[in-house]
Amino acid sequence: MLQIHGLKYSYDGQAEISYPDWEVEKGNHALILGNSGCGKTTLLHLIGGLMQPSAGHLEIEGEDLAKKSSAKLDKFRGENIGIVFQKPHLVKSLTVRENLLLAQYLGKKEQGSKRVNEVIEHLGISELANRKVHQISQGQAQRVSIARAVVNSPKLLLADEPTASLDDENCMKVIDLLRSQAEETGATLIVATHDHRVKSEFQNQLSL
Question: Is the pLDDT at 72 greater than 90, yes or no?
Fold first, then answer.
C-alpha cells in the first residue's frame, strides 16, 4: 500500500526533514509516533498528497504521487484517501448530513443518502444528522470528521493527532472507531500522534 524511500521535505528557510524508509502493507494499521515539531503532520500531509516532497520516493497503491499533476493528484486523493485533520474543518453553515454529501461530491463519488446514513449510524451520530455544525460539541465534531473521512470508502485512512485532547476513555474510543471504520472498508489506517497511550495498539510503528 505505502512505500517511502529517501523521503525529504524542506520548509522555506528551515532545515530539511529526512524520513526513514518505511512500508505499510494493504489493510495494515500503522502509527507515526514522535514529539511535537518532529515532522509527523508534515509526513502525513505528504502521504495524503497535500504537499510535495523535495526529494525521495513516496508510492501509494503503486502510484508515485510526486509524478502526478495537481489535477491528477486531487483526483487520486478524492478517490483513494480519507483524512481526519487535527481540527474538523467542517462547513459550519451546513448540517452534518450535508457535510457528508459534500464530501461525496468533492470526491467525485456517487451521491446518495444510503452510504451517508450507514456511516452516521455506525459512528453513533444519527441524532446529529440534521444539526448545523455550530450546534454540536467538539467531541461530536470529531466523530463527524471521521464520518466525512470514511464516507467515500477510502483505501487509505489518515488521522492526525486524533486523541491529543482526549481523556483516557475517549482516547481509546476514538482509536477503536478509526480501526473499526478502516476494517469495515478494508482500508489501511495510519495515525500520526505524540500520544504514547496508543502505542501498544499498533504493531507497525514509525518513530520520528
Answer: no
CATH superfamily ID and name for 2-207: P-loop containing nucleotide triphosphate hydrolases (3.40.50.300)
Measured distance CA(129)–CA(18) in Å, rounded: 42
Instruction: Name the grid cell of 5.
Output: 524511500
pTM given for the model: 0.89
Measured N-to-C along each axis, helices 168-185 and 113-122 cross at an angle, to the nearest 10 degrees, of: 140
* HSE-CB of 165 using CA atoms within 13 angstroms: 6
> Please, what sign has the CA dihedral across residues 48, 2, 43, 10?
negative
Per-residue pLDDT, averaged over 153-174, amounts to: 87
Domain ranges of the chain: 2-207
- Would residue 13 be called left, alpha or beta, if left means φ above 0 and alpha means ψ between -120 and 50 degrees? left
- Whole-number pLDDT of residue 189: 97
User: Is residue 96 pLDDT above 90, yes or no?
Assistant: yes
